Structures are given as C-alpha cells and as structure tokens.
C-alpha cells in the first residue's frame, strides 16, 4: 500500500481516500458542500488509486456515479451537485 497525505494533512494509506470518498457518496448525512470539496480535490490529484476506487465502487454498486466523478476533472462547469451530495452531469 502507498502512504499518502490526506486532505487534512495526516498520512493515510492510499486506499483510504477512495473508501472515504465512496462512504461519503452513499451517506445521506454527508453535506453536499463536503462532497463537492472532496471530489474537486480528488479530481485534480496526480495520485489516484483507481483500482481501489473501482473495487469499492463495485462493492457499493456506484458505477454511474464514479463515471461522472472521473469526468468531473475534464469540465467541472458541466456538473451540478444535487441535495443528496451526488454529482449530476448537465
């Protein structure tokens, strides 16, 4: 496992970032602004562990949402954050 910095400055295992993102996406308690910030930061990161992200996505059956997240970096202006915290492509 690769050790990396989290958004809060502490060291975490790389897979923890992806697991945290997916946990946030499926939680109805996550405020939309928090999801937006995390997804925006993740979209611009150089170090992504997409294998782990897809592994957790598969477990949570979130394929459509992940495709949108991966496209977010290409053109953030084409996305809308829903009250649920999920992204919707416009």
Strands of the biggest beta sheet: in what spatial order?
A: 1-2
Structural class comes to alpha+beta
Question: How many whole angstroms does the radius of gyration measure?
Answer: 12 Å
Helix content: 40-55%
User: What is the β-strand count?
Assistant: 4
Q: Please state roughly what percent of the residues sit in beta strands, choosing from under 5%, 5-15%, 15-25%, 25-35%, 35-45% or over 45%.
A: 5-15%
Overall tally of domains: 1
Anisotropy-based shape:
globular
Q: Show unreliable segments.
A: none
**Terminal Cα span:** 36 Å
The sequence of SSEs as H and E is EEHHHHEE
Q: What is the count of DSSP helices, taking H or I runs of 4+ residues?
A: 4
User: Mean pLDDT, nearest integer?
Assistant: 68
The main sheet comes to: 2 strands, antiparallel
Describe the protein.
The protein has 90 residues and is an alpha+beta fold. It has one domain (3-89). 52% of the residues lie in helices and 13% in strands. It is built from four helices and four strands. The chain has a two-stranded antiparallel sheet. Strands 3-4 form a two-stranded antiparallel sheet. Strand 1 and strand 2 form a beta hairpin. Helix 1 runs parallel beside helix 3 (50-60). The longest helix has 13 residues, at 14-26. The termini are far apart. 17% of the residues are buried.
Summarize the structure.
This protein is of the alpha+beta class.
Layout of SSEs?
Layout lengths: L2 E3 L5 E3 H13 L5 H13 L5 H11 L2 H10 L6 E3 L5 E3 L1
Antiparallel strand pairs: 1-2, 3-4
Helix pairs in contact: 1-3
